[in-house]
Amino acid sequence: MKNDRVLFLLLAQSALVLASEVRTFHLLKENRSFTAARQNCQARYKDLGIFRTASEARDVLQLANVSQQRRVWIGGVYNRSEWRWVNKERMNFPCSPQYASNNKTVLCGTIDPVTEMWNLEDCGNAHLSVCLDVQRTLYVISQKREWKDALSYCRTNYTDLLSIADVKDQKQLEETLQKHSLDKVWLGLKKHMAWQQWYWTNEQVLEYQLWAEGQPSHPLDELCGAAQKDSRGNFYWYDSCCYEQLPFVCY
């Protein structure tokens, strides 16, 4: 199969370094299919390589070059004429591959460190992979605020209200709340009234979910999301009135 190729475009926007979130990339020297490579990355780190800035793109290229391979999996998926990252985030830079020569609905992305080109490939092919790891510092604010005030505080002083992408993020939150003896805190989770959908305020796709039984309960006055401890000491997500005053977690 002749691969459609996409010019690897570095972002013109410079990286914003945030002390509360450290993103690093790692090369796994095991030939696997795209799905198996992603599972391997998620088990060891966060996910397949997803990059947002020119600096991160250079890091990925350097790792791919070290591999001495002409094809290395990254976290890009081409589905129905659109590039997205595997976590369903939109790519924040232009990337428009030609699709006419392949009749598959979904193709997966590799990067060639020699040509700095992206390649569309059958997801069943076997390659090495670049993984992303994300280490976040959580900041617990015990002063109670309404949801919108909590959001403003986090964005002014840190990055954002906390979002949760997977089990690892949830575990980090639970351990943090246990240390601070808190039972309920605001998350960066909000319901869009027009779309009738829940979303994260940092634009992270809401894929992993851990709602309590019967939640969200959908009353018109409960449009903000919180993490709350149940009777067994486990934390689940609840919809709550946005005017309720709660502690909150920033990152």
Automatic annotation (TrEMBL):
Residues 1-19 form the signal peptide. The keyword Hydrolase does not apply. Keywords: Disulfide bond, Signal. InterPro entries: C-type_lectin-like, C-type_lectin-like/link_sf, C-type_lectin_CS, CTDL_fold. It comes from the Eukaryota. Residues 20-132, 134-251 form the C-type lectin domain. This is C-type mannose receptor 2-like. It comes from Lepisosteus oculatus (Spotted gar).
